[in-house]
Amino acid sequence: METCKIGNEVFKIVQDNYSQETSREWDNLGIMYCKHKKYGLGDHGILIEQIKKATSECESWSEVMTILKKDFKAIEILPLYLYDHSGISISAGKEYPFNDRWDSMTIGFIFTTEEKIKEMGVNKKNNEIKDQLEAEVETYNMDLNGVKYGYQHIKIKKCKCCEHETEEVIDSCGGFYGYDVKKSGIYDAMPEKFQKALDQGKFKEVV
Q1: Are residues 109 and 41 in the same domain?
Q2: CA distance linking residue 31 with residue 168, whole number of Å
C-alpha cells in the first residue's frame, strides 16, 4: 500500500481484494478457450461449452485449431501458455515464452471472429487485432496474480473536545490493473494536489 497525507486528507493506493469481477467478464474482442485438469481458466458460457463438445475427441492442439477455424470461424488465433510454479502465469503469442518445459504447457487459444471485429469496431490493419488479444491475456494474467488495485481518498476529522481522530471516506474505487499508477488510471482519479505529490515522490509505502 502507498499513502500520502496532505493537511487533513489522505490518499491511499491499496490492493483490490474485494472485486469479484474479472476482465473476462468485460466486452472483449477475444474468445479465450482453455483446457486444464486443475484450473478453470479462460471464458465460460454457451460458446465455450460448444467448443469443448466439438473438440472433445481431438488428440492435438492443431486439431483443435482446425475446428476453431472451420466450425467457429476463428481468425487471428494465438496459443495460450501456462506457467505453473508457486502460482500461475498465462501468456499468449506465436512463440513459446517459457524456458521451463516441466512447469509450463499449452492450455488453449485466444481468437476472434469477423463478427466480433465488427462489433468492437477494431481496425484489422497494423496488427491491432493481435495486439488487443495479447493485451487481454496480459490483463487476465494480472487477475490471476492479484495485480489489481484501488484507492481511498480519506478526510481526517479531529474531535475538538478529546482530539480523537476519525476517518471519513470521501471517495474510493477499485478494479485498476497494473503496478504503474499512471497507466492503470488511478492517477487520473487523484485530486490534483495528490497527483503533484506523486510526481514529487511524496507517496510512502506502508506494509
Answers
A1: yes
A2: 42
Per the DSSP assignment, residues forming a β-bridge with 167 are 156
Q: Which amino acid is at 174?
A: G
Residues 8 and 83 in one domain: no
pTM for the whole structure = 0.85
Same domain, 34 and 93: yes
Extended beta strands in 69-129, E state: 75-84, 88-92, 104-112
Range of the domain at 198: 2-20+147-205
Q: Work out the burial of residue 45: count CB atoms within 10 Å of its CB; fewer than 13 is exposed, 13-18 middle, 19 or more buried.
A: exposed
Rounded distance between C-alpha atoms, residue 175 and residue 207, angstroms: 21
Distances (CA, A) of 82 to 7, 65, 138, 185: 47, 18, 12, 28
pLDDT in tens, the chain (207 residues): 899 999 999 999 999 988 778 899 999 999 999 999 889 999 999 999 999 999 999 999 999 999 999 999 999 999 999 988 778 999 998 666 556 565 678 999 999 999 999 999 888 777 899 999 999 999 999 999 989 999 999 999 988 788 788 899 999 999 999 999 999 999 999 999 999 999 999 999 987
How far apart CA 99 and CA 112 sit, in angstroms, is 28
In a domain, 131, yes or no: no
Q: Are 166 and 157 in contact (CB under 8 A)?
A: yes
